[in-house]
Amino acid sequence: MDQERLSFVALHFIPGIGDYLVKQLVSYCGSAEQVFKTPKGKLLKIPGVGAISAEAIKNGNTFHDAEKELKKAEREDVEIILYIDKKYPLRLKTIEDAPALLYYKGNQNLNVPKTVGIVGTRQATEYGKEMVERICQELAPHKALIISGLAYGIDIHAHKAALKNNLATIGVMGSGIDIIYPAAHKETAKKMLTNGALLTENRFGTKPDAHNFPARNRIIAGLCDALIVVEAAEKGGALITADIANSYNKDVFALPGNLGQSFSEGCNKLIKTNRANLFTSVKDLEYIMNWSASTNAVTQPTFDMTLFDADEQTVLRILKERNAPVMIDELSFKSSLAPSKLASLLLTLEFKNAVKSLPGKMFALR
Question: What is the pLDDT of residues 263-318, one digit of tens each?
């Protein structure tokens, strides 16, 4: 068994060590395996690590559970994608609270050029279902990946409409990947495995408890380039997802609805309060996102390194190697640059259009 993968899952399973700290530990120590070999005194110097966490790491009590989990994943044809893997969704890496690992089943590339989240009420009206169908039809030329939550109502209609229009679709689950919820959607979930995937951050056997769904919503928001809210009441999961997407600087759209209709209130309020763009057709999305059906290629930033001084080149290499946002304190640690000097250097790189600043004091290549 791959010792690094085993160590990463064992680290993730330690109670009290959340996603952020797992990523912090692996980044500072160089690998998950090295985290367990690092002396307790050095662990305590890593931001966020306290005495209890350091002691739990040194105990290594979670290796047995991690080994069982990896073996079960192999038997169930489930892939556990670690934050450090190339297959991990790059869009999720830009958010501070991204899952440290994901359980994945299907055949879908998670890093396609265009992704659209479609969410809404569980009490979908005929109008809502019709609009979902139309959205997927209009998105077909873009070959967009459709993301939703496999729930009743708008979610399941989004998955079905995507499959009908030959669009790949991903269902993000609030349970373990071995527990399809609701059970009535098992057949659709099975079809999604041939043109899409199922995805969750939860361990095998995790029940669909209420507290898992707001966490699930952040993954939907993080995975999509644009989020479309089709129908929503004044309060509910769809509005939570929209708020999260806004906090991630994603483009949010909402379909207007009739005044006085309960499942139009949420969408109309999002538009009225400027928390969503008005959506009347995919042309609105194309305009805001600057999409055309012909732009379906992923472009990677390239730089002429001779235009940058030695310290700037060091920072750019770190960002390029990670191919994901990096926190400023980690950049300082890895580049051996003083925080004050690094802050000035990053500002210069922003002016040179080489680096962009992200929420949470994180930086990435532009």
Answer: 788 899 999 999 999 999 999 999 999 888 765 554 455 667 778 888 998 899 88
CA dist 183 and 163 (Å) reads 19
Helix%, strand%, coil% for the chain, nearest 5: 50, 15, 40
Say if CB 74 and CB 105 are below 8 A apart: no
C-alpha span between 334 and 281 (Å, rounded): 46
pLDDT higher than 80, residue 321: no
Return the DSSP state at 265: H
Can you tell me the mean pLDDT for 163-186?
96
More confident residue, 70 or 343: 70
Q: Is it true that the peptide bond before 182 is cis, omega within 30 degrees of 0?
A: yes
Rounded Cα gap, residues 314 and 327, in angstroms: 15
Domains of the chain: 3-75 (1.10.150.20), 115-289 (3.40.50.450), 305-365 (1.10.10.10)
Distances in Å between the Cα of 230 and the Cα atoms of 88, 144, 254, 258, 276 are 28, 17, 6, 13, 11
On average, the pLDDT of the chain sits at: 90
Q: Which helix (H) or strand (E) holds 22?
A: helix 19-29
Q: What are the start-end ranges of the E strands in 139-225?
A: 145-148, 169-172, 196-200
Mean pLDDT of 161-176: 97
What per-residue confidence (pLDDT) applies to 218? 95
Give the strands of the sheet with 277-278, arranged side by side.
Answer: 79-82, 101-106, 196-200, 169-172, 145-148, 115-119, 226-229, 251-254, 277-278
Q: Kindly state the DSSP code that residue 185 receives in the 8-state scheme.
A: G
Question: How high is the pLDDT of residue 298?
Answer: 47
Strand 79-82 to strand 277-278: parallel, antiparallel, or no bridges (unpaired)?
unpaired
Structure tokens at 90: 């790059």
